[in-house]
């Protein structure tokens, strides 16, 4: 059973995580005009995951990017 969990973890790290977002450091997030935070505000969107503990890179939404719902 441990082998199954290990293979699942490897598949997740190899295929799913890189397809959704990437790990960035705080400097790279700042260069993309974002900030590493624990939660994004409603006026911001998540663009990447910061390499620091449990933080995400948030950037302000443009008015054209607002959800249509």
Automatic annotation (TrEMBL):
Residues 28-58 form the Beta-defensin domain. Pfam families: Defensin_beta_2 (PF13841). GO terms for biological process: cell chemotaxis; defense response to bacterium; innate immune response. The keyword Lipid metabolism does not apply. InterPro entries: Beta_defensin_dom. Residues 1-26 form the signal peptide. This is Beta-defensin.
